[in-house]
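ok here's Centrosomal protein of 19 kDa, seq below lol
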Amino acid sequence: MSIMPQQCGVRFDPPALVLTYHNHRGNLHRRTMPIRGFTKRSGITRTAESLVSNPRHRKYLENISRPQIEKLLRIIQEHMKGISLDETLGAIKMENTIDPDEDLNKLDDIALSRKKAIMDEDFEKNRKKPGDEGFEYEVEVDFLPAIETSGWDDQSDPEF
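and the structure came out like this:
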């Protein structure tokens, strides 16, 4: 049975993910997946993993990216802490953008894996596959030759 997600959102009280999807016949349905035992201090990654691995929810969440599920869980958790939705969305947007000048070598493993997931998601979103509009099988590009110089090239070689 193929599920085509249309929208995924949250319900604050009691906490739940709400998924709107089309089933294999094309009918629109809504599924509410309660998040039991979720608190202000719960681990978001662990909760997302348990939701995705739950046999009752697996087929509904398999086409939703893990970063999106974690983002929705974070919105619920920040709401539990009393932080406004606008503040939470602003903070999440800042965390989910890739700064080209950021040195990813200085990040810990968890932050690095989060940044990689964001880059993978952006890549898949922008990727052109066969059958997509504007897809070209073989693209040839001629680049102008770039001449790079460096300081060590300027000096003559010492005599040996």
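fwiw Residues 4-96 form one domain. kinda neat tbh
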